[in-house]
Design goal:
Elements lengths: L3 E5 L3 E6 L6 E7 L7 E5 L7 E3 L5 E3 L5 E4 L2 E3 L3 H9 L5 E5 L12 H11 L1 E7 L2 E4 L3 E5 L2 E6 L4 E7 L9 E6 L2 H8 L5 E3 L3 H6 L12 E3 L15 H14 L6 E8 L3 H13 L4 E4 L23
Parallel strand pairs: 4-9, 11-18, 14-18, 16-17
Antiparallel strand pairs: 1-10, 2-3, 3-9, 4-5, 6-7, 7-8, 11-19, 12-13, 13-18, 14-15
Helix pairs in contact: 1-5, 5-6
Length: 307
């Protein structure tokens, strides 16, 4: 099986509300050439400024992942980025007529469905490049920890521990592939606490939040009438967020991540420090097939995609 780059077959579009800004926005995802990566374009601003997705363009990680370039920004990109990463899409142009990616239902599943059913996936005539972890790397902030170890695939072992009866010491171990991402992670919604909602809105967050795009918990239970999609949906959503943040590297990552209580801020501190620490990783290309011996190729958007 050839480890080639991927883009969309055709343009797709949707309309939705930004989770934090509450603004209505139209979004288009378009095919892009090989080696161009993922780029956002703000169509509501004169001269259509481009905001490439890369670690140096991260400017805010409070409650979401936001990127900027030359003063132009796009907010809350992580769920869409996770969908693209999960489907193995390397190159795409994303156009917005507002400041924030639509929240949809608070997960990545709407983007996955759109791409699968309407966009299609095109295999391109250039090889993927992989960022492979060579030796253990660790970063810590008080009780928040991210460790990554060498592996022959992408694994994520995540633990959350909130002061809530439903979210104490919740764990999930995820072995990444396109199929497992769609089935286990893509449907997991963002979550928040009822007693924080008013304060968040006063501080400019969650203006578009509702029971239609987030799990909301009171002191003892989930207040959404339909309940949870998985009993451990919240830790699965943290994995979704982490995959979306990891996608900002711009290459499929091969390593075993063990994470405790992290969020966007520590995720991005880790990404930036890891990228600068060249001794901990190497870039491999399938052009040198012997160098990829033992790596589980189907993990990165190359296995069959379920309908």
């Amino acid at each position: 099986m050839e480890l080639k780059q991927r883009t969309l077959e055709r343009e797709i579009s949707c309309t939705g509300i930004g989770l934090h800004t509450g603004e209505r926005v139209n979004l288009k995802i378009k095919p892009a050439p090989v080696n161009s990566g993922i780029k956002f374009i703000r169509k509501d601003i004169p001269k259509d400024p481009v905001i490439p997705v890369k670690p140096d363009n991260i400017f805010n990680t409070n409650r979401a992942t936001d990127i900027s370039n030359n003063g132009y920004k796009v907010q809350t990109i992580e769920h869409l980025m996770a969908a693209l990463y999960g489907l193995g899409i390397d190159n795409a142009v994303i156009e917005l007529d507002g400041p924030e990616v639509p929240a949809m239902d608070g997960s990545a599943v709407s983007f996955v469905f759109m791409i699968q059913q309407y966009g299609g996936i095109k295999v391109q005539n250039a090889y993927k490049k992989f960022l492979v972890i060579k030796k253990p790397f660790k970063i810590k902030d008080e009780d928040k920890v991210i460790c990554v170890y060498p592996s022959n695939e992408l694994n994520i072992d995540y633990t959350i521990d909130f002061d809530h009866p439903l979210l104490r010491n919740q764990k999930y171990k995820f072995n990444f592939s396109t199929v497992s991402f769609i089935k286990e992670i893509s449907r997991a919604r963002t979550f928040g606490f009822l007693n924080e909602v008013e304060e968040l809105k006063k501080n400019g967050f969650a203006k578009g939040g509702s029971l239609d795009n987030a799990i909301v918990l009171d002191k003892f239970r989930v207040i959404n009438p339909e309940g949870l999609r998985f009993k451990d949906e919240c830790v699965r959503h943290k994995i979704l967020d982490f995959i979306g943040d990891l996608a900002i590297i711009g290459k499929p990552v091969i390593g075993y991540f063990v994470i405790e209580k992290s969020g966007h801020s520590l995720n991005h501190i880790m990404l930036k420090k890891l990228i600068k620490s060249r001794s901990y990783w190497k870039i491999l290309s399938p052009k040198e097939k012997s160098s990829l011996k033992g790596i589980r190729f189907p993990a990165f958007g190359l296995d069959p995609i379920p309908a």
